Amino acid sequence: MNLLVMENFIAIFMVGALINLSDINTIENKLNSKKEELNLHGEIKWTKVTDNYLDKYIEMIKLFFEFIRNGKIKVRIMFAQNAFVSDGLTKEQTDNEYTILYYYFLKDSFGLRFSNNNPYKNKVNFSFYLDDLPCSEEQKNILKKSLFRYNNELRQNNTEIIEIVEIDSKKHVIQQCMDIVLGSINFKLNDFDKLKDEITGKKSKRTKAKEKLYKVINKNIREIKSGFNIGITTGINGDQTNYWKHSYRHWNFISSYSHYDETLTKRGSKKATKK
Fold it and tell me: Which end of the chain is more exposed for a tag (fewer CB within 10 A), N or C?
């Protein structure tokens, strides 16, 4: 899982992928083979997307979405907007804001509690592999303890979190592909696709390349989820088990203890500038 913290209107993004243990080696081997075929050496990531590498990144992301489309990978993206300002938080809650968001993302975004459709015969175990946790060792331990406590609820359905470890995304191609998808969503929701050079008034080649890659990613998402809306929480069609069943979902996280501040939105910011 990756976390991007941006000083912008949509400030926090998280992404996660869920894969069956029996499929992970096959998926990694195919993605790494594609990287080698395309001469993409080292880590692939959104910040490296340029016009020269665009076609190669498009091929990589199309292969990644094949696994999502075929149900081999489930992807969840969560984002939180600055315009929703939290109310009445204690100092401890403020200090642990990102850890708390991680907890809810890992606990709820994949619908783990709906994962076992035959608890009397099967047991479902989960291992969490977390990338680049932006917090202290103490906060990491609090997060892990909180997730293991969640097992008290999961075990009622013969489901359990058995392992939580940290990894380096530079060594894992699946995490790298997730970074590209997440980067594209951040790019679009924060209007980075509209950035223009102050002198020429035109978009740079890099911005144009990223915009083209975003459109490919958006097209692939819409093939999986017709009517998909990038900026809102993906619907469940009246069935809570779809939190688990859906292969791709977005979650616009809004705390119950928050208020909406229009001045922190794009439109509100423009109004304030005009006064």
Answer: C
